[in-house]
Design a protein that fits this description.
55% of the residues lie in helices and 9% in strands. The chain has 352 residues and is of the alpha+beta class.
Length: 352
């Protein structure tokens, strides 16, 4: 009996792809359906009546599901696979059948349902290697692509980092984890994740899709959090008035006080804030002595609700024009200063 089953199984599996290939080129939908139903019936007969071991049973179920998918009958595949899992809770390959189910839902554009099945595998089934690939890893990869919930994505990122560090770029994932903590208003965890990101050896050089200023933004956030933040003003008008008054009175001490104490930059318009010479510490005293400093009557027209530029002149013989750069503070970790204004830097030279 076992030999007969093996021979019949081998014939059906071997010629299944040939049959379906021929059907695809046949214009008759009726013939295609007929061949499909006959093939499925033969496989089902062996599945129900045969004395099969686990590997043989896996081969038949996999072929039957694949037959549905080859015809793009995703709903048929879902019904077949979910019914099998429900009726056979001890099948060691159930995580794989549910993985196929999740992919079928993805093919139908039903991402929320696919997410349910990917997550169900993680929560209820042990990991399984299929052709050397971890099913849990594949689930997590898909979940971080389709999940819209920050709380869920936090769990998925942590799982990838802790369980599969050799398969992922942990530097990137620490950054993305921190960003999800921010979205979920978990500020302490966000700061911790940003700190770990900054500690990675490739944090300064890594190129992360969609996050061109990843290192700069993380560094700014961490440094800002550890500072006293006393240099901020509640309004742009208050900051502008104070700076104008200090310049008019040649009060370099006040100007030094108003400068942001974290990531204050002075650079040309072509430079970047992260350049090594863009954040050198200096006092306004040496640039005010003996010079006649003047400010424009109004802020530059290019100013926006979150950024403002004040054109000033007379600072030096070589580069007399400086644009003082003011920006709104984006720091939701501290509601007392979030939305305040700070003098964040200086652009030297005329605007390009």
């Amino acid at each position: 009996m076992k030999q007969i089953i093996k021979k019949l199984l081998l014939i059906i599996i071997t010629f299944s792809s040939i049959i379906f290939s021929a059907c695809k080129s046949d214009k008759s939908t009726k013939n295609t359906a007929s061949v499909f139903e006959e093939n499925q019936a033969q496989l089902l007969h062996i599945l129900e009546k045969g004395d099969l071991n686990e590997q043989q049973r896996y081969t038949i179920i996999n072929q039957m599901a694949t037959n549905y998918l080859n015809l793009k009958d995703y709903q048929g595949a879902v019904l077949f696979l979910t019914d099998w899992v429900e009726q056979n809770p001890n099948d060691m390959y159930n995580s794989y059948w549910l993985l196929m189910t999740a992919y079928a839902y993805l093919s139908m554009g039903a991402e929320p349902v696919a997410e349910y099945y990917f997550d169900r595998i993680l929560q209820q089934y042990q990991d399984l290697l299929v052709k050397g690939n971890s099913i849990h890893f594949m689930c997590l990869q898909n979940l971080i692509q389709i999940s819209k919930s920050p709380a869920h994505r936090i769990r998925y990122f942590n799982s990838l980092i802790n369980r599969f560090p050799q398969n992922v770029n942990t530097t990137e994932l620490y950054l993305r984890l921190a960003m999800e903590y921010e979205k979920d208003s978990q500020w302490t965890q966000a700061l911790r994740a940003y700190t770990v990101f900054l500690e990675q050896p490739d944090a300064t050089t890594i190129q992360i899709p969609g996050e061109p200023d990843a290192y700069k933004n993380a560094r700014h956030l961490i440094d800002y959090n550890s500072s006293d933040k006393k240099w901020t003003f509640e309004t742009l008008e208050g900051l502008e008035t104070a700076v104008r008054k200090a310049i008019r009175n040649y009060d370099w001490r006040s100007l030094d006080k108003y400068k942001a104490k974290v990531n204050f930059f002075s650079m040309s318009w072509k430079q970047d804030e992260t350049d090594t010479n863009a954040q050198e510490e200096f006092s306004m005293r040496s640039f005010m002595r003996g010079n006649r400093i003047r400010c424009s009557d109004t802020l530059d027209p290019s100013s926006t609700p979150t950024e403002a530029y004040l054109r000033t002149t007379g600072w030096s013989t070589y580069v007399p024009v400086w644009y003082l750069y003011f920006r709104k503070v984006n720091f939701p970790l501290d509601s007392d200063i979030h939305g305040n204004w700070e003098w964040a830097g200086i652009y030297m030279g005329e605007k390009l």
